Amino acid sequence: HCDLSEYNIMVCPCRLVENSLSDPSDQDDNALQVVLIDFGQAVNVHHPDAKKLLQRDLTRIKEFFEKMSAIATMSIDVAEAFVTMNDDEETAVGNEDVSRKPLENEQ
Question: Where does the RIO-type domain start and stop, copy by copy (predicted)?
């Protein structure tokens, strides 16, 4: 968990973000990607309130981008599944493919 308020989120062109999930040559020049910054307030995944804090922050992010109405967001369940996975294996979450595996303590 970290402070996932709108002040710690950047939206930038995909071509400027190092991302192992996509091939830069396949990206549209206008495609955007969310980048999270400032993890100074992060809590350990074993913290008793980690799940509650993560859900709160994911909800805030979704609400912030929905207010802008031009930006589509994934569901809270899909977002939570995505951010609580490791990079080891490919897994399908909802209708979205993510290249990550659930953490042991989240299974």
Answer: 33-71
**At which residue do the structure tokens 């308020």 appear?**
5
Q: What is the pTM of this model?
A: 0.53
For residues 73, 95, 30, 10, the Cα torsion angle rounded to the nearest 10 degrees is 40
Q: Report the C-alpha gap between 71 and 80 in whole angstroms.
A: 18
Q: Look at residue 48 in the predicted model and tell me its pLDDT.
A: 93
- Grouping H, G, I as helix, E, B as strand and the rest as coil, residue 11 is strand
Per DSSP, the three-state class of 64 is helix
pLDDT tens, residue by residue, 22-67: 555 665 667 777 776 666 667 888 899 989 988 988 888 888 878 8
* CB 100 within 8 Å of CB 88: yes
